[in-house]
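User: structure tokens for this one?
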Amino acid sequence: MTEAAHKIPWEELALTAEDCSAMFGKSPRAFLETVACLPGFPERVSKKPAAWIAGEVKQYRDANRVGRRGRRR
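Assistant:
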């Protein structure tokens, strides 16, 4: 990692689909097909490779806990 990367807060880094998928416990493909396409999910900051701002993804995950146990409809 470069010295500049050490100074950038984690929340401002760009995460790939692979990085984001780990946050949701899914494969990159499953993440793209089931989470990234949901209304309200943060906008991509890059198309190729797909990337999102880490802090926005974390905030979305925390607010929308996909697959929470104990919730029944």
